[in-house]
Structure formats: structure tokens, C-alpha cells
Design the sequence.
């Protein structure tokens, strides 16, 4: 059973007299009953009034009649001024007269709370909850649970500190302890109140692990004015930042409050805080779904299609890309804000990807729709394939973020097979290239190719050609099938890149060689799982 005791009387009286709302008073009395905070504001005010009227000579506690587990905040260490525990066990101390309870109630009723700036008043009411839920419904998200987050005005930390220092001084005068860590945090109390209302209105449970987030951003017009003294006392804590309208961010204010001395704070700010001129404003009500990940394999049949948009000096070179041909359908079906494309390696614009294709994954950011059956994914795959003859997609499926790591492992650790059409300046016969078939585990030193030096760091990379198989075509052409370590630059292995790749086909044949066509025949990564047709 949650209750207030005689030791709470000076806290209740002080805070009521200075314009604190009933719920904040409960917080500073370290009341941990979640249900109690959900009582109507006026009922709580009456309970506190009755508490103050109670005969202080009685040693019995005045119970606020709620069955609930005890406060979870167990004091681990004694406060500075004494060893009384959190739940006020032991003798009830005689305290000075609390004063007129009616006057205290009248001073607090109808005012904006001097500690929470109305968060635990106006924004706990049914009208605000309905406003939040209307916003959620209009956003048209799929979700089966939600997590609620709240961003508070930075000066609430200042007011919280001021209230605590005022209460601390009052308790010290009475020889009673008050540990700051025992006070129920504003965000926690607010969620205790708002969670059940949102759950009932939305018809789904609140879940701290949910991927669907409902967030409210509160702002207050007096933030800069109230925090200005901190910038004077702790100027190092406030640095102008890009995309920030004010230097008084929450983290900067908290940092300054940790740094400022108590006596300096007391000189510049009233403790407890004075009543504010304005109520908080719910600046933003937003929804966001956690990212959804879709994976598959793609084949690329065009020699004029880049994997990702090809833009040079701000100018687009080709009209489309593999990434766009796939993602435009996913974006439309999942109703996402944006996407991030990744794959197990990449091919050049003029290289085809054949065989079972190249593994890819797409992160869909803030999707409105998240639930798809296997049949729906098949239809989506077919829609992608029907839209273009340049690519085909297979094994399209929903995956987890962690599963994508298996695809990235294959970029350097797995093998890939290629087919290259090669030209030589000097005439060749079958016997001139036959020896290539006998070369196994050929080690290369590849300096970063000139063609990618603008986007890759200069380095010498050791790569391995595991096997080669040649097919003679005519005196100046042959096809070479290669199985290589992932990450090998095949074009440079053929023509040598002005000696930057050693050895190369040209040096092995003792003549000039160049590559005319290149196909990726397989990417040997066992991911994503193969799906039945």
C-alpha cells in the first residue's frame, strides 16, 4: 500500500505553497505507486489537502487507498543527513504546523506546475491522449505494440534541481534526509500515466522492445531565458552546433548542472522554482517504425547498367541502376521513407552477373507496412522481374538485421567465378594458353587500380587466383574461366593496369592482353536461403 507519512508533510506543504502539481509532489515524496499517479488531478489535490488537515500528533499514516507494489527505488546508501529509510519506517517525528491546507490548495489549483511545466497536468488528460492517437492512426502504420518516448524542454532539468534543493533545505532544517536518486523521474511518472491510456485507445500493448515508436517533443518558450545563467556560470558547456536553433540543448544543460556549484546555483535561481508564465507546448507528435530488411539475389543481364546510380560531378550518366530497379517496387509496397542498398561485392557497369546471382539486401527506413506473407513476397518479386529485362530477382524474403552480416562476410572471405573474353595483340595457338589450366593458387599483388583510385585508398592487396580454364576461340581471342578470391580485380589481372597488378595474363603470355567482356558466373555466398519456386 502506497502512503504518505508525517515526514512527507513539510515536502507537501512547501511544494503546494510554491505552485507544484500533485503528481510532482508525489514524485518528491518518492511515492512509487504507478496506479496512484493515474488518479485524476483534482482527486489527488483533495487527497493532499486531507493529508495536510490530518492531526499531526497522530502516528498513523494517511493512506492514499491504492493496492500496488512498494516503490522499487530501494535506498542503497544513507543520505548525508541521516539514516531514515525510503519508506519512512520508524518513529513519526513531530514537525512544525503545516499551515493552512486550503490556502495551499488554492495557490496550486489552476496554475501551471512550477516543476513539470504542465507535463503531468494538461498532457495527461484524455483529450491529449486522443490527439496523439489520431496522429498515429492518420499516419497509417502497421504495428502490434508500441514504445512511447518523450523529449522534454531542457529547463525542466533546471527546475527539477531547484525543487530538489528547496526540499532538501527544508528537510535538512528538520533533520530529515532526502536522497536525489529516490525521487521518481518525471519521464517515468509520465509514462506510468500515459501508457495505459495509449494502450487502451490504440488497442495494442506498450512494449519497451517494440519497433514502432510514438514520440512527443515538448518545447517551452522560456527555455533560453531560464537557462541563461548557466551559460554565464559554465560557458564551456554551451557551444553553437549545426542544425541547432539554441545552444541550450538537454545534454548541454545537464552537463552544466553537473558542473555548477550548489551555492552558485542558489544565487541565480529560486529554490523551489517560481511559477512559469506559460504551459509547455507539444511541438511534435511523430511515429516511426523500425527498419525492415529485405534480401535476395539479383542477375544483371545488361552491359550498360550500373549497380548504383552513376553520378559524376553532379551529372547523372545513365538513366537507371540495379538498386533503383529493385528498390522502387519495395519502397512502394512497404511505404517506406527511404532505403539503403547493400550487396556482396559489386560489378562494373559493363559486367553481367549470371548464374544464381549476387546476394543483396535493402534496408527500408520507417516503413508503414511491415507484414508480408510468403505469397505476397513472391508476387512482389514477380512484379520486379516483369518491370525490366535488364535484371531478375530471386529468393526475395524478409530477413533480420543480424542476418545481413553473413552476406558481408562473403565480400572478402568467399570465392567468385568469372568468365572473361580476352584479346591478345600477337597471334596465339591453343598450346600457347594451355598452360594456364595447370596454374593453381596463383598469388597476385594488386595495387589499387587507377580506375577506382578516386574512391579507394592506395594500397597493395594480396589476392589469389584459385583455378583457371581456357577456351581457344581464334588467333587473337580466347575465353578464360577463373575461380578467384573475393575482391580480386579481374580486369587488372588481364591487362596488368600498367604493371600495377603482378603477375597478369599479359606477363604470363609475354604479350599485350586486354579484356573485352566480363561476366560474373557465381558469387559463392550461401545466403540468403534458397526459396522453393
Sequence:
Amino acid at each position: 500500500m502506497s502512503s504518505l507519512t508525517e515526514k512527507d508533510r513539510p515536502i507537501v506543504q512547501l511544494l503546494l505553497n510554491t505552485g507544484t502539481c500533485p503528481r510532482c509532489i508525489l514524485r518528491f515524496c518518492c511515492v512509487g505507486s504507478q496506479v496512484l499517479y493515474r488518479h485524476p488531478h483534482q482527486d489527488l489535490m483533495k487527497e493532499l489537502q486531507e493529508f495536510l488537515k490530518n492531526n499531526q500528533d497522530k502516528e498513523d499514516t494517511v493512506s492514499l487507498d491504492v493496492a500496488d507494489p512498494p516503490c522499487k527505488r530501494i535506498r542503497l546508501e544513507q543520505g548525508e543527513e541521516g539514516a531514515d529509510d525510503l519508506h519512512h519506517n520508524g518513529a513519526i517525528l513531530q514537525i512544525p504546523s503545516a499551515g493552512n491546507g486550503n490556502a495551499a490548495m488554492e495557490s496550486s489549483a489552476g496554475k501551471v506546475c512550477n516543476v513539470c511545466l504542465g507535463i503531468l497536468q494538461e498532457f495527461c488528460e484524455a483529450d491529449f491522449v486522443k490527439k496523439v492517437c489520431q496522429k498515429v492512426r492518420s499516419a497509417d502504420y502497421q504495428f502490434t505494440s508500441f514504445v512511447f518516448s518523450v523529449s522534454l524542454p531542457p529547463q525542466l532539468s533546471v527546475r527539477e534541481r531547484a525543487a530538489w534543493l528547496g526540499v532538501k533545505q527544508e528537510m535538512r532544517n528538520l533533520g530529515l534526509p532526502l536522497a536525489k536518486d529516490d525521487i521518481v523521474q518525471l519521464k517515468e511518472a509520465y509514462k506510468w500515466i500515459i501508457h495505459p491510456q495509449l494502450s487502451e485507445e490504440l488497442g495494442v500493448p506498450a512494449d519497451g522492445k517494440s519497433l514502432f515508436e510514438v514520440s512527443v517533443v515538448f518545447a517551452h518558450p522560456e527555455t533560453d531565458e531560464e537557462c541563461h545563467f548557466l551559460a554565464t556560470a559554465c560557458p564551456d558547456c554551451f557551444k553553437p552546433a549545426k542544425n541547432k536553433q539554441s545552444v541550450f540543448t538537454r545534454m548541454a544543460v545537464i552537463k552544466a548542472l553537473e558542473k555548477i556549484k550548489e551555492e552558485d546555483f542558489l544565487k541565480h535561481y529560486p529554490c523551489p522554482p517560481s511559477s512559469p508564465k506559460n504551459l509547455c507546448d507539444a511541438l511534435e507528435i511523430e511515429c516511426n517504425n523500425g527498419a525492415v530488411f529485405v534480401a535476395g539475389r539479383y542477375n544483371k543481364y545488361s552491359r550498360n547498367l550500373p549497380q548504383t546510380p552513376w553520378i559524376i560531378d553532379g551529372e547523372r550518366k545513365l538513366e537507371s541502376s540495379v538498386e533503383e530497379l529493385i528498390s522502387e517496387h519495395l519502397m512502394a509496397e512497404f511505404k517506406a521513407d527511404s532505403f539503403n542498398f547493400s550487396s556482396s561485392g559489386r560489378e562494373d557497369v559493363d559486367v553481367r552477373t549470371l548464374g544464381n546471382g549476387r546476394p543483396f539486401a535493402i534496408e527500408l527506413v520507417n516503413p508503414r507496412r511491415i507484414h508480408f506473407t510468403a505469397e505476397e513476397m513472391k508476387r512482389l518479386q514477380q512484379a520486379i522481374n516483369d518491370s525490366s529485362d535488364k535484371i531478375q530477382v530471386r529468393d526475395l524474403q524478409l530477413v533480420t538485421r543480424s542476418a545481413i552480416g553473413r552476406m558481408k562476410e562473403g565480400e572478402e572471405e568467399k570465392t567468385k567465378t568469372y568468365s572473361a573474353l580476352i584479346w591478345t595483340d600477337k597471334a596465339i595457338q591453343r598450346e600457347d594458353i594451355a598452360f594456364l589450366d595447370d596454374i593453381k593458387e596463383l598469388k597476385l599483388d594488386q595495387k589499387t587500380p587507377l580506375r577506382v583510385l578516386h574512391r579507394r585508398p592506395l594500397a597493395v592487396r594480396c589476392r589469389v587466383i584459385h583455378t583457371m580454364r581456357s577456351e581457344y576461340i581464334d588467333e587473337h581471342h580466347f575465353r578464360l574461366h577463373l575461380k578467384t578470391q573475393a575482391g580480386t580485380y579481374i580486369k587488372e589481372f588481364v591487362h596488368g593496369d600498367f604493371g600495377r597488378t603482378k603477375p597478369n595474363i599479359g606477363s604470363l603470355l609475354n604479350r599485350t592482353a586486354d579484356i573485352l567482356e566480363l561476366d560474373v558466373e557465381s558469387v559463392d555466398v550461401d545466403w540468403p536461403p534458397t526459396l522453393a519456386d
In short: Residues 349 and 523 are 17 Å apart (CA to CA). Confidence is low (pLDDT under 50) at residues 59-101, 103-107. The chain has three domains: 6-55+113-226+269-288, 291-411, 416-523. The longest strand covers residues 460-474.
